[in-house]
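Researcher: I'm preparing a figure for a lab meeting and need a structural model of a single chain. I don't have an experimental structure, so a prediction will have to do for now. The sequence is pasted below. Please return the structure as tokens so I can convert it later.
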Amino acid sequence: MTHKSRAIFLAAALVVLASAASAFAAPGDKALDDVRVLSADDMQGRAPGTPGSEKARAYILSRFAEIGVAPIGASFEQPFEFAKRDGTNIRGVNLVARIKGTVGGKAMVVSAHYDHLGVRNGEIYNGADDNASGVAGLLAVAEAFKAHPPKHDVILAVVDAEESGLRGARAFVAAPPIPLSGVALDVNFDMLSKNPKNELYVAGATPFPFLKPVLDAVAAKAPVSLKQGHDTDAAGKQNNWTNQSDHYAFGEKGVPWVYFGVEDHPEYHKPTDDFATVPKDFFKRSVATVVEASLAFDRDLDQIAKASGR
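Model: Understood. Here is the structure written out token by token.
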């Protein structure tokens, strides 16, 4: 073999090895990259109706293609319109995909919003935790279900305009891709990456006590401290997360929900919510936790649907 032939052979071998490594990557391995890309300055804070929002959608769609999920119908993109406070109309776009279950029956929705606050007074609000982290968690769940096919259909709802009043989630439930009667549970991710106490919270077990055994089992093995709460007014309305993110739109329609997130931190809704401030080790363990929780909910979805009367 000549030196030139040997070089070509080695280059080809490296490509094959890289492809193999990618094919066998563990679910969630790309989560940090997803946050980094979605919270970069060139996304301009991902405000609805902006070029940055369009760029974020293009990236998420590229990840859908990489993971191998399918749209429901002709397109992943589900546009909607809403009016701003000044009366002008904004076009939002939800991204919806499905992973078919092996058994069927009721479906589970996994949701996360990809929008943030955009540019204000010349400063970019990158929203690394809020909510690039939740989208990254959703993509990790999608990877896990592609690697280990779910029993039930899993609908991935990456929704727009949460910061404008849950507009994307409300558009989703107003015109759902399947009848809402066929949805047993919404699993919502919003802010998964920043907590100095190693704590991730999950809300929903108080209004839906049939979820508690599943969450207790996940918490017992979770690589973070998974705490339940923030779903009543017991500690004050400001600490009740029931209506604080997209799961509330599902709850308004009678769909049970769980919401995973961290408590507010100094970067919340500030220009400093950048990728550089994400504690990488905690975030990776947080993603591993929501992946395992999603797998557990799929395993027990028939019992959850029965207990909720759906």
